Amino acid sequence: MVGPSFDVARWMHHPLRYVVFSAYYEAIRRNHRHQWYAPKKRVESASFRSYELINKHGRDVLLRRLLRNCGPDGVVYDVGANTGVYSLAVAAAEPTAQVVAFEPNPLVAAQLRTNVACNGFESRIDVREAGVGAETGTQRFHLSSYDELGSFDARNAGAWEASVRDEVDVEIVAIDDIVDGTSTGSRKPSASDDVVAAGTSPPDHLKIDVEGYGLEVLRGARETLASARPTVYFEPHTEGGEDRTDDVAALLRSLGYRIRVRPDAWLCVPESSSN
Question: The whole model's pTM is what?
């Protein structure tokens, strides 16, 4: 039991954290691969199962706000879906909502698909194995020893005590292209063309948790933010890489968004909205 004198801050920077986190990520890799045990999770009124061993992110203020804001016909883009907590919770709470989940890490995207199938949510969650950025194309992605920290920025992938364990080239898409269904034009066709699916509805809700790459996501979504006016649920990241939160805030405000700052969470609401 943790007593009142336990110094959480000191433990979080202790080498023991690396041992605990490394063991956890290895355990969930095996659990997803073999599909041994999918405990039930509950977030607000939503109940679902996943092969994560704990209800990681289940208490996120942004997730709870998203569930309160999303209606039956809502369209949610889950950018940086990881193993799917946000996507699964929305699909469980609102069976007729449309969720598009983006995850560039091939291993984690496979885990996400496993969790979607575990709940029978294949018709509710559209999993796209791709990153989201300023332009559609390909980019080098850094795999982290803490799977959740995988990033297009090597410094973020090596944050905390993690390290970069590999690098892969992944498809990357711009939200404006997704909403537009932009064709390849004179560009050589690539696997990205399967991710930029024509007819994808614009988002009502845009969640962004991408380990320091959020500015690029927003730059590739300018037209969508200006026209569709989705509520943005943004998780700022300052560990490891460069702190660009001032640039993110300036871009959002230039597009007419109010930013409500919470610890490790920004709720970004278009000026015309009352959310």
Answer: 0.88
